[in-house]
Amino acid sequence: MNRTPEVQAVLDGVRDLLPTFRERGEEGERLRVVPEASIKELEATGFFKLLQPKRYGGYEADPIDFYTAVRDIASADGSTGWVSSVVGVHPWQVALFADEAQQAVWGDDQNVRLSSSYAPTGKAVITEGGFKLSGKWSFSSGSDHCAWVLLGGLVFNEEGQIVDFRTFMVPREKYQIVDVWNVVGLRGTGSNDIVVEETFIPEAFTLSMGETGQCKGPGQAVNTSDLYKLPFHSIFTSTIATPIIGMAKGAYAEHVDMQQKRVRAAYLGEKASLDPFAAVRIARASSEIDAAWALLMNNIREEQDLVARGQEIPLELRLRVRRDQVLGTARAIEAIDALFEASGGRALAEGTYLQRAWRDSHAGRVHAANDPERALQMYGAQQFGHKVDPGMY
């Protein structure tokens, strides 16, 4: 896909903000939420509209441009990168909803944002015209900056049987944000709980995960771009891996800078930059970071090429996206660990990017999308010819 001048302007604007985001890292940790000023500055660049339909003022950008922006933001501050990623990807899913729902979100204000919590911890019961939804959901990153939330829920019929798994789009007046986010990593993400007392959600404001598993959604009738024909799980799990790769990029830059200035007292005043073993560690870390990024982006590009040719994306490729996504997360964190361990005591100081990236990356690793064994087992099972549910990928 060709990058338009408007999208290039967004990427340039994001890069101009990186020093500011880095300076606000400690503020976000103290507030336990990304500072409002950072969200407003990102909004001003057009970042949150990268994956938004053109019909509602968006850019329908190449997802790789979106991921590139996220990676850069996370290289300055992990929490800002994380929130930017998960909030910034939601317009892509909203574009799959019925147009009635899209109009409700963006009809009056095209800058409206949504947070999410997809684990089906709530309950939805079928009723006339829609569903009765209730429950509590955890880890809704960036929810303080959003006017809607996307919630996963199991759907029950009148007999109490599970008949579907859907995403429910809920406006701010119908849910409560409960402040529970007291953690050691990704402190600035404000990933609080969402509580919904029983409320009615119209059918048009829901999306079946079975349908998205087939790369389909009612919104495709009005949003015809190839962007909205990509697999949900490819787009969303890459959204979770990308900020961690960005954290590794930032940790690498800070480690190299530290080592250029560092004099090692334990080695008779030797300059760390002259240590051949330090050079080897830097080379290994940079290769792991580059490999994580290249595999992630190359897989998305391969899916895009198939969609552009009107061909179905094979299950093997969708599983490969998940394989390389979880391993990309692992590679990035292993690189951060190696750099952190080799950085000396100064890396422990509060305020350094490196110690925050170390904490933030390990916090991001516990996200369900980064469960390596499950993703790798599914890939291996498919290679052995075992049946794998494509709806999960």
Describe this structure as you would to a colleague.
It contains 13 helices and nine strands. The protein is α+β, with helices and mostly antiparallel strands.
Provide a compact summary of the structure.
This protein is α+β, with helices and mostly antiparallel strands. The chain is 49% helix and 17% strand.
Q: What are the main properties of this structure?
A:
49% helix, Butyryl-Coa Dehydrogenase, subunit A, domain 1, 17% strand, Acyl-CoA_dehydrogenase, two-stranded antiparallel sheet, 393 residues, Flavin-dependent monooxygenase, Butyryl-CoA Dehydrogenase, subunit A, domain 3, alpha+beta
| Count of alpha/pi helices | 13
Number of strands: 9
Distance between the termini: 24 Å
Count of spatially separate domains: 3
- What is the annotated CATH architecture of the largest domain? Up-down Bundle
Largest sheet: 7 strands, mixed
Shape: globular
* Mean model confidence by pLDDT: 94
Main structural class: alpha+beta
Residues in helices, as a percent range: 40-55%
Which regions are unreliable across 5 or more consecutive residues at pLDDT < 50?
none
Spatial strand arrangement across the major sheet: 5-6-2-1-3-4-7
Order of helices and strands: HHHHHHHEEEEEEEHHEEHHHH
Q: How much of the sequence is in beta strands?
A: 15-25%
The CATH topology assignment of the largest domain is: Butyryl-CoA Dehydrogenase, subunit A, domain 3
CATH superfamily of the largest domain: Butyryl-CoA Dehydrogenase, subunit A, domain 3
Class of the largest domain, according to the CATH hierarchy? Mainly Alpha
Radius of gyration: 21 Å
